[in-house]
Automatic annotation (TrEMBL):
The gene is trpB. This is Tryptophan synthase beta chain. Its EC number is 4.2.1.20. It is an enzyme of class 4 (lyase). Belongs to the TrpB family. It comes from Thiocapsa rosea. Residues 77-415 form the Tryptophan synthase beta chain-like PALP domain.
Length: 453
């Protein structure tokens, strides 16, 4: 049908492999370094906190990596996820552009995060792990790992960034419903948390701090591993089910994107939608424009440095080459908690440095306004994080209205905002403000970057 609104795939079209962009990079990633020796890290080094299968995927350069059947069985609870043509939004904007969005809010946790939580829980269970520790910002990753732990019979401990812990009580309740323990970070349960509280008793927390606490706890017991919800290669790999499905769905629509848009905090949902298409381009396929959208109050790609840095505040993690604002930087407490991270995924950072990805940023109020405009047209209330992608898609569609170009725009609506209604209430009441970061704090954080030969 020429006027179709949604494009649905049968379960038989669920991808059987993930796509690994490392196979098609024009130049390889800079090596990950051991934080103590600054030598390239080994699989044995990583085995303290990750299961072997995950480490192999992190280091792999194979283009396709098989999705285990037990993982596909769980995926089938909500995948393949729908692709929508935003016809009502197009009409409201009076744009000749065609706007498509892949809707990841249909997962049980309401976001894209289970795409990697399920396989990470599976691989840990397969290796005999009993407990997984992790961090979460807005709570979508913690919710997803709590769900995955329940599916595979694992104990889950989640350190939730304190500002989001208080902003989003329903996310905490969701995690606890599935049996996870949720702790506000920084906390007094770890040495790194106590150190932060001693210096900053009123700390609102950050993903870097929460990662430190989770890694510290994981390293203390042999039956415990750590899981990360974004940034690392294996996480971005698992998310490519999104883009692989979208490729088939756009074939159904007889279309192909001119540009792909996603919000970026650590980079997982952006990579999930964009990498399969970018892989085609790198192998000689059609040209596309990739736009990574971040909050102006935490502008990692647009204002950060491309340098080696730690992934956490306590400097427990390996050194990775990425765009960073400095591992000690604590972003302001804006509502898109999933985007409050000081660094960006090495793969996305590398491709941005090479010019394949265009970063941009928007402030909080403009993003909420865009989310409400989208909701009124399409009937879905986006998560605050996803509003950044919505805002960019609207901006690009309005450019098409002015130029008369009928571009095809694809963006990832990476989660719904049903647990974020207090943020919308505050916005509608005029209580939300555009928060800014202190430039001197970023300068201080960047001055502490490790010296790498």
């Amino acid at each position: 049908m020429s006027d179709s609104v949604k494009y649905l795939l049968d379960e038989q079209h669920l991808p059987r492999t993930w796509y690994n962009i490392n196979a098609d990079l024009p130049t390889p990633l800079d090596p990950v370094l051991h934080p103590g020796t600054q030598q390239p890290i080994t699989a044995d080094d990583l085995a303290v906190i990750f299961p072997r299968a995950v480490i192999e995927q992190e280091m792999s350069t194979e283009r396709e990596i098989e999705i285990p059947e037990p993982v596909r069985e769980v995926y089938r609870q909500w995948r393949p996820a729908p692709l929508y043509r935003a016809r009502r939004l197009e009409k409201a904007l009076k744009t000749p552009a065609k706007i498509y969005y892949k809707y990841e809010g249909v997962s049980p946790a309401g976001s894209h995060k289970p795409n990697t939580a399920i396989p990470q829980a599976f691989y840990n269970k397969q290796e005999g792990v009993k407990r997984i520790t992790t961090e979460t910002g807005a709570g979508q990753w913690g919710s997803s790992l709590a769900l995955a732990g329940s599916m595979f019979g694992l104990e889950i401990v989640v350190y939730m960034v304190k500002v989001s812990f208080h902003h989003k009580p329903y996310r905490r309740a969701f995690m606890e419903t599935f049996g996870a323990q949720c702790i506000a970070s920084p906390s007094d349960t770890t040495a790194s948390g106590r150190a932060i509280l001693a210096e900053h008793p009123d700390s609102t927390g950050s993903l870097g701090i929460a990662i430190s606490e989770a890694v510290e706890l994981a390293a203390q017991r042999d039956d415990t591993k750590y899981a990360l919800g974004s940034v690392l290669n294996h996480v971005l790999l698992h998310q490519t089910v999104t883009g692989l499905e979208a490729q088939k769905q756009l074939e159904m629509a007889g279309d192909y994107p001119d540009m792909i848009i996603g919000c970026t905090g650590g980079g997982s949902n952006f990579a999930g939608i964009a990498f399969p298409f970018l892989g085609e381009k790198l192998r000689g396929g059609r040209d596309i424009e990739l736009i990574a959208v971040e909050p102006s109050a935490c502008p990692t790609l647009t204002k950060g440095l491309f340098a080696y840095d730690y992934g956490d505040t306590a400097k427990l993690t390996p050194l990775v080459k990425m765009y960073t604002l400095g591992s000690s930087f604590v972003p302001p407490g804006f509502h898109a908690g999933g985007l409050r991270y000081h660094g960006m995924a090495p793969q996305i950072s590398h491709l941005t440095k090479l010019g394949y990805i265009k970063p941009t940023s928007y402030n909080q109020l403009d993003c909420f306004a865009a989310g409400i405009q989208f909701a009124k047209a399409e009937g879905i209330v986006p998560a605050p994080e996803a509003n950044h992608a919505v805002k960019a898609a609207i901006v690009e569609a309005e450019k098409c209205r002015e130029s008369g170009e009928a571009k095809t725009i694809l963006f990832n609506l990476c989660g719904h905002g049903n647990f974020d209604m207090q943020a919308y209430t505050d916005y509608l009441a005029g209580k939300l403000k555009d928060l800014t970061y202190a430039e001197d704090e970023v300068a201080m954080a960047l001055s502490g970057l490790p010296s790498v030969a």
